[in-house]
Amino acid sequence: MISLMDKQKIIIDGFLNGKSQWGIHRETGISRKTIRKYIREYEEKRSKLLEGEGDKLILTEEMIEPPKYDSSNRQKVKLTDEIMARIDFYLEENEEKRRIGKSKQQKKKIDIHECLVEEGYDISYPTVCNYIRNISDEKKEAYIRQEYELGDVSEFDWGHVKLEINGESKNIQMV
Length: 175
Fold this sequence. Notes:
By secondary structure, the chain is mostly helical. Helix content is about 50%, strand content about 10%. This is Transposase ISEfa15.
């Protein structure tokens, strides 16, 4: 992305100092097409100002505003169909575990990301989270905070996990 400072350097070097587009490209590393675009924009707005066309304040503001980028229609680069298929596979695996009562053994989003990285895919954790959020319609659970007097109530967590031991599915209780 090009900052306002880069845009100003292009305009100053290209228009005011008379450097060639190739020279600016070599110095800044910015594409010649981009350099040409900013120089042409500047020349057009400058000529409108000199000819007295349009509002001077608006034209001046347009000349010095930072570059704008439309990122709304960009393609996903890292999230390929192959990676989406793998994520869908892990989500189906989770659904199967929920069906047979092994909900404690589901893969969380971070686990899915780690599996993908281990398989050699170059993808970030937020990309995985965003994809899962877009395809699933999770409802957040709501909890009501409860207040008790000291000594009235004792609380502990009780749970169970289904394990397969020697080919037999067993329900193990945990505290």
